[in-house]
Design a protein that fits this description.
Length: about 350
């Protein structure tokens, strides 16, 4: 039987994908993009700046140039590319995502066989605690996690294009993290006001970001649990990538709190998330869905599943919109004449 060389090469590239990811993680860990940006472009200079051996840097850079992360060469010196520039230590960087995915989350993926067999999060198997409980006790990691989440939210700037937040609306961002999305919305709708709800350890991060961007006079920060209660009087309730790690009944409870607390029949609820399909799926949603099992034990839902959960809580989907990075927005209106689920 003649070997299918193309299939063999593709298989080897898939098998060695973890090595590539770890090489990129090492570059971020050693701050190689920042050193190159500062003019340190040779193996010797990079070795001196990082404390690594010159031969080690040469061998790492040989691979990273071949991968396209960096440009240049051993003899001519290295240069950053648009890809390596995303790892520079500056606002909007992917560096924190790279470190998180290359360390704690990489360890979690090492428990994939057991995780698939038990549907227990790989992170919990690796570290002995669920992710969010672990973050509560590790503030440095919690900060990196929040920054990584922000870096992955490349669609935020487009959210005001798919919904009108103007008209003096009060926007309640449930699980709003550091306030990045809320700040984008408030900047696009200067007459709107915001309330951000998240766990107590996240509120200082939100306060710092919102004070820099829109000012704390336009926002109220609320520490709490959206599955227990949400701020009342909202014209718009937002759930952006925060429900994948939770059971269906939890999501229904959060939606029902919004239904009972909404300002009036013109209030709307927005769910922004990656939606999965079982047939003809693209790689990114399927990959992120499996990643959720490894990190939180959660999963992505389909449009139909979200529609059912919203219906249980007294909402009906009135519009579906597409956002970049294969993200979907569901806009739901309160179902008239009915109370929310309790």
């Amino acid at each position: 039987m003649t070997a299918d060389l193309k299939a063999l090469q593709e298989a080897v590239e898939m098998i060695s994908g973890g090595w590539r990811a770890q090489a990129v993680h090492t570059a971020a860990k050693l701050r190689l993009p920042d050193h190159i940006e500062a003019g340190l472009t040779t193996d010797a200079e990079l070795a001196a700046a990082t404390g690594a051996k010159e031969e080690g840097i040469r061998r790492l850079m040989r691979l990273l140039v071949a991968m396209g992360l960096f440009g240049g060469s051993h003899r001519a010196g290295y240069r950053n590319t648009p890809v390596s520039a995303t790892l520079l230590d500056r606002p909007g960087t992917l560096r924190d995502m790279c470190l998180l995915y290359g360390e704690e989350f990489y360890t979690a993926w090492g428990h994939a066989p057991e995780s698939l067999g038990t549907l227990t999060a790989g992170f919990e198997l690796a570290f002995g605690q669920p992710l969010y409980d672990f973050l509560d006790g590790h503030p440095d990691l919690a900060g990196r996690f929040q920054r990584a989440m922000v870096a992955g939210n490349l669609f935020f700037d487009h959210v005001p294009e798919i919904f009108d937040f103007s008209g003096g609306k009060t926007i309640v961002d449930c699980g709003g993290g550091n306030g990045h999305l809320l700040s984008v919305i408030l900047q696009a709708a200067p007459d709107a006001r915001g309330r951000l709800l998240d766990r107590d350890h996240v509120i200082p991060l939100a306060r710092a970001h919102l004070s820099r961007t829109v000012g704390l006079d336009r926002v109220e920060l609320v520490g709490g649990d959206m599955f227990q209660a949400v701020p009342e009087g909202g014209d718009v309730y937002l759930f952006c990538r925060v429900l994948a790690g939770w059971h269906d009944d939890d999501a229904v409870a959060a939606f029902a709190h919004c239904r009972r607390g909404m300002a009036g029949p013109s209030s709307r609820l927005l769910v922004l998330d990656r939606m999965v399909v079982d047939e003809d799926s693209t790689v990114l949603p399927a990959l992120w869905d499996l990643h959720l099992l490894m990190t939180t034990g959660g999963r992505h839902r389909s449009v139909e599943e979200f529609t059912t959960l919203l219906d249980r809580a007294g909402w009906q989907v009135e519009r579906i919109a597409s956002l970049p990075m294969e993200t979907t927005a569901l806009v739901a209106a309160p179902r008239s004449g009915e109370a929310a689920a309790r």
